[in-house]
Write a structure and sequence with these properties.
The structure holds two protein chains of two kinds. Chain A is of the alpha+beta class. Chain A contains three helices and twelve strands. The longest helix of chain A is centred in the first third of the chain and has 16 residues. The chains are: A alpha+beta, B mainly alpha.
């Protein structure tokens, strides 16, 4: 029996490529607001994603409502010492506005925040401001990295990454991979 | 006697406390869910849209109006739209087994006998 070598070539190359390429198994996710896609990122393998949605929360003490945009939260399946959340608040159109928004949520996220550094960065080809610091939460020390990314179309993406003391430092790579996969959807 | 009762009461109370302390580890929610998710829950809270001016910040920009939902689209009058077929079909009704269970051949052993 003769085997046509040319016809065997393509499956062989395909098999080799399948072995050679690194495991690209991350899951792309698109953040939308009112049906409009705003940005995308990739969820690392073995991370769990909580999508959420727009809603209004009432402060039972004061009795007023406040709007909340969709919060997407992620953490490793087996480690709750690491967390990252994305939100694109409505009406916040600039990095300065995003920082002001962060100042209005930080007291709920972190107790006694100490900012250790603030720097300009480029994330997904977009201008961004990265604020790093430490604080406390539930009696444990945490490291936080708050990021405001300027999206086209008068929107910003606010990301807060948190590493509790005792978290596996290897997860920093996963967190940076999430930022590495960040792209504007427009 | 009183000593024994006290011991038993102590044991019962101790077991109760142990039960509570074990269930306390489960968090607030029960069943499938995220349970206590401090950072997610906190990120929902913001004072940016806080409508009460407790701490007036002069530099704060005017809060944007909440988007008003446009009127919901109405389906066309007359024929209702065709319901899309979901990808997962309903399982077929359970077929009746062709073989019926045979009647009990013998009466149960412990049936109470008639009153004499």
């Amino acid at each position: 029996m003769r085997i046509n070598m040319r016809s065997m070539l393509a499956p062989c190359i395909a098999a080799l490529m399948g072995l050679a390429t690194p495991t690209v198994a991350d899951t792309p996710v698109t953040y939308t607001d009112s049906g409009k896609a705003l940005f995308q990122f990739e969820v690392p393998d073995f991370w769990t994603l909580r999508v959420g949605g727009p809603r209004e929360i009432e402060d039972s003490a004061v009795g007023d409502t406040r709007g909340v945009a969709r919060v997407m939260g992620m953490r490793p399946v087996t480690d709750d010492n690491v967390w990252i959340g994305f939100v694109s608040p409505t009406g916040v159109s600039s990095i300065e506005g995003g920082i002001r928004y962060l100042q209005d949520i930080d007291k709920f996220l972190v107790k006694d925040p100490q900012v250790s550094g603030s720097s300009k960065a480029t994330i997904g080809g977009l201008p961004a401001q990265v604020i790093r610091g430490t604080g406390r939460r539930d009696g444990r020390g945490i490291n936080f990295t708050a990021t405001v990314i300027d999206l086209p179309g008068n929107r910003v993406a606010v990301a807060v990454a948190i590493l509790r003391d005792g978290a596996d430092p290897a997860y920093v790579n996963d967190l940076n991979d999430i930022f590495g996969s960040f792209r504007s959807a427009r | 006697m009183a000593h024994k009762l006290m011991k038993r009461t102590l044991l019962a109370l101790g077991l109760c406390a142990a039960g509570f302390s074990i269930t306390g580890c489960d968090g607030v929610s029960v069943g499938v869910g995220y349970g206590y998710d401090p950072f997610y829950d906190s990120m929902l809270w913001n004072d940016y849209y806080h409508d009460v001016n407790v701490n007036v910040d002069v530099n704060r920009p005017v809060r944007p109006d909440r988007p008003i939902n446009p009127d919901r689209p109405r389906p066309p009058d007359g024929k209702p739209p065709v319901r899309p077929q979901p990808p997962i079909a309903k399982p077929p009704a359970r077929p009746r087994p062709p073989v019926a269970r045979p009647p009990v051949a013998r009466p149960p052993i412990h049936r109470p006998g008639p009153r004499r």
